[in-house]
Structure formats: C-alpha cells, structure tokens
Amino acid sequence: MVLCAIDGDRLMFHPTLIEQGYTGGRQVAQDFTKAIAQELLQQGLTVFERLSFWVTLYINKRAILAALRDEGIASPEHFESFLLGFGQASPRFLIVDAGPGRDSTEVKVKEYIKTYIRFPQTLRLFFGGVDDTYLAMYDGLEKDDLVGKLVLMQPPNEMSPAVRRMSARTLRIDGLFMTEKVNPWAARRPGPLFGLAEGHSSVVTNGGLISPQSESQSSGSTPPPRHSSSEGLRYIDATKNEHEEDDLVPTSTPGYKPAAAKSVDEYAKLDAEDESLARWKASLGIVPGSGTSGQGPKVTIYSLELASTTLPPGKQLVMNLQDTNQIANLKKNPITIKEGVEFNVRISFKVNHSIISGVRYIQLVKRSGIKVDKMEQMLGSYGPHPKGEAYVKNFDPEESPSGMLARSGTYSVRSRVVDDDGEVYAGALLWFPRSSGPTALIFVRGADWEWSFKIGKEW
C-alpha cells in the first residue's frame, strides 16, 4: 500500500491547472499518479504486485477559496470544479475539508501520517506541505525508526534549518504545484497587530488585582448582560445595529457568576480595621476617595502596540485609540506586517473609577467577508492605579503567517474590550448635546473599533 497526504493549506496545485477547472483536476490526478509510479520504480518497489495508491488532500476550503479569489488566481467556481475533477479521477483520491481554525488542517494531516505510517502494509507514505510545524512529528517518526517509509514531496525551495535537518527522501514534481509556500490565514493566526501611541504615563503589569493567564478561546453562546448607565447619562453603542448578530460575545464559564459590583470606596471600607489588608488595598489604589465621581466611562483604552525585534530601527506601528481621525482611517489604510516574524502585543488602558473584573480583549478577523479567526485574551481585574497612571498588559508572543496566500488580500478586524458585566470600553469619547433631560450631554461610546492589515514580505 502506498499512501499520500497533502497539506493543501501549505502546498497547492499550480494556478494554470486550477484555472482549467474539472479538466485541470483530472489532468493533475493523472500526472501525479505517473510521477509517483516513476518514483516507486526508481526505489525498486514495483516488484510488489497489486500496489494500491491512495491520495488524501486536506484543505481549509473556505480560506483557500478566499485566498485564490483575492489573489486573482481562480474563481471559487473554477476551484470547486478543479477539486471535483481531481476527486473523481479515482475512487482512491480523497478530498477532506478540515474546516476553519488555525491548526485544523495540520492536526488532521499529522494524525493521518502518525497512524498510517505504522501499518506494516504501508510501503511508502508521500507527504506534501512540510514546514517547521511538522518538525516534532518528524522527530517522533525518526525516534520510532519510521522515517525510511516517509517521502517529503515538494519541500520548500528555501528550506529552513529545521526542514534541512530532516533526512527523509524527497521528491519534486515539476509543473504540478505552486512554487511558493501556501499558508492561508486560518492556518496561522497573526494575532492582534497593533501600534502604541506615546504621550501618556504607564506602568507595566501582569493584571492589577487579579491576573489570570488565558489561551485564545472560541466564543460561547451566552450573551453578556445589559449594563446600567450612570445617572444623568444615556449610553449609546454607535457601532452596532440592535438586531445585528454579536460575534464578539466573550466566552462564558459554566457555573461562574460575577459578584455584585462595588465602588472603590466600598471596597476600601471593607475590613477597614485590618491594617495589613488596608496596606495591600492601598498598594492597588483602593483607598477612600481614590475613584472619581463615578460618571463617564470606567475605563479608557489608550492604545495597542505591536512589538517585534524585526522592526526597522525607529519604526513603530501606531494605533492611537484617542485619535478619532486615526480610528476613522484604520479601515482605509491597512497596516503592513512582515510575514513569518515573531511579535508580541500590548494594550494600554486607564481605569478611571470603580473596580473592573474579568476584562478581556476580543477580536474577529474576516477576509472578503468570510470569518477566518476569532481571538480572546484575558487582561485581568483592576482598580484605579494608585498614581493615576495607565496599565499595560503584555500578550503572549505570536507569529505572523507567511506564504503567497497569506499575503493575498486585506484582513478586516473588529476589536472589543469588555468585562464580566458586559461593559464595553472604548478609546476616544464623543459628546453630543441633548435637547432635554437631567444633563445637557449624551455620551456616545465608540465601543468596538474596526481596522485592517495586510501581510507583506517586508514591514
């Protein structure tokens, strides 16, 4: 038995063949089979009678469709037709849509290889789409003395040190595959890509009162409770239609119910006779009179920063959320991020009054209107800073995606900062006069903000 597994998110067939639709798919299947047969002949494996050849192509279909369309390589109709031709060329040619998710294709391919390469009936397993993410899998196969069955098909032209150290046999087939590495957005989430504005005092923290660390999570289905406004102010979410589906609802923890909200003064007066507790609370800014009157936003979001050692000297990517003009331009002028680099993100914000708990940053990423990723990062729980300064929360390191498909098109992002009570916080504040009521102003909360970015070969 001869098997072939292709990670189609990293290795895709040549555009000229995809453009031919159904005919191109069948032609690829025929040429591919001939190339494998020739390789088996060179390895002396054709002496085995009735060898069966199975091919499984794993793809994140939605992401590939969007990338091919955005790059102008092929229309969705051509690609669908191509896949149909490829799959119908033989009952042993299988196409598996791994579904959305940053690692969905990779996980399935790894499991397939680690399982089937161990079968004694498996003479060779051809693998297309290798890169650094498969190094741990390769090391495991090498340890179990199974690398002799593995053939790395169409390895990258510019191999990384990790790929170069893989000693398995390789095979290149001219004219069937794209020459550049394919890696759509869903296969490697870039994470939040931002910039930090200067001009405000800040202190780095890992979470204020409480600093839970949280991996990225998918959204739950429980909507946040409606928050109440301060007396005399009417809060309006200017970015959202009340009938619009909310894709930025934070994850709910089963069985967890936030405690009743208390003011800073109320927390300061709790167990006031305990001197050690009073000193600890004072270090966190929880002292009588430390908060403001309680009107207006509890939290002001200042900025977000993308920090990377690969940035050119003196270069900063700035997203100043206090600048209303910049917020308006964020969607029109995408940030350019260099492919394949490590970066980390930090958010800067100030607690104006009250104690806030379970604060999270959430973002939803789309390309060509198709949802490709959602990320949720726990920031922690906070009170007003003792010195009135801003907090800065560092996110875990991320790696930007790479490859032609990752560089194609523009990614649109919708971001939100929200707490356990469903209170949504923003940066710049807009005030408009009102005709009647106890106050003369309406506070319009910017709530979510939208921006965009591209992946490029350079910053």
Automatic annotation (TrEMBL):
Feature: compositional bias, Low complexity: 211-221
A Pfam family per the record: Rho_GDI
Gene Ontology terms: cellular component: cytosol; membrane
Region feature Disordered, mapped onto this chain: 205-231
InterPro entries documented for this protein: DUF7923, Ig_E-set, Rho_GDI, RhoGDI_dom_sf
Cellular localization per UniProt: Cytoplasm
GO BP of this protein: Rho protein signal transduction
Coiled-coil residues: none
GO MF entry, a single one: Rho GDP-dissociation inhibitor activity
UniProt entry keywords in alphabetical sequence: Cytoplasm, GTPase activation
Domain DUF7923 stretches: 1-177
Family: Belongs to the Rho GDI family.
Name of the protein in its database record: Rho GDP-dissociation inhibitor
Species of the source: Trametes pubescens
